What does this fold into?
Amino acid sequence: MSLAEAEENSGGGDAGSHERVLRRSDLQGVLALLDKLGAPRGARILEVSCRHGELLRELNRRGFDARGTRFETNLPPIGELAIDNGVDLIRGLPYPDGSFDVVIITDVIEHLEPHARLISELARIVKSGGYLIISTVNVMRLDSRLAFLLSGFHKTKRRVMPFDTPLGDARLYHNHPVMFPYLYYLLIRNGLELTALGRSRVKAIAYFLYPLFLPLVALNTWFLLMKRQRRYLVRHNRARPSLALNRKLLGWMLSRQVLMHDHLILAAHKLNS
It folds into this structure.
């Protein structure tokens, strides 16, 4: 699937106005996370799939050197915003390595299947010492896990895809939500270190499920990452580095943002090569 298909459907379809409300909330979370990172005025920022330019306008207002991308080639300009049309993330971004201090992508990767290729391409254009910010639907939250236990379907922002949907229209649905541990792995393999999680909307049910399930979730996650995995790693002489990564992952996995928040908003720092 191309980036165009993800862009085209990230704010419409079945979710309609509900998803647009969530988007405003998520943009606030992205901006708050950017503030936390302390990016200086004048920093070069790219938003991949900038849609109608809501985030770009705010970035410019804050003094950043911001530009965006859109897949379509025939869209009209949006005011004075710097936007590169005809850009397809899956085929490769038209920027040299290390072009931007910060790269931001929101509400796209859950539409795309090749997550490994996507993260690799995004990481490529981030400067050493810069940041990649990702916002995506959070299927690791407790109400989504409970929904999966009871129905076999995670809770995303869209309803389950009808199974008579034409193959070409499958892109309308969130068929490719990324699991947090796999995203953590992809960041590591591309020279990125997860440094912060942002905040998004929290539903009322999350406040009920969190104290109820946290002890059981914490025990099982610890056992899987730190106890059971240790035996395998020791046998293969990989215990020290791998368990250190597992220990960090354990902390993130038990955070309120992962267990409670509707959206997963994260910042990853590109290590100096």
About this structure: The first strand starts at residue 44 and ends at 48. Residues 3-202+255-270 form a domain with the Rossmann fold fold (CATH 3.40.50.150). The chain has one domain: 3-202+255-270. The radius of gyration is 19 Å.
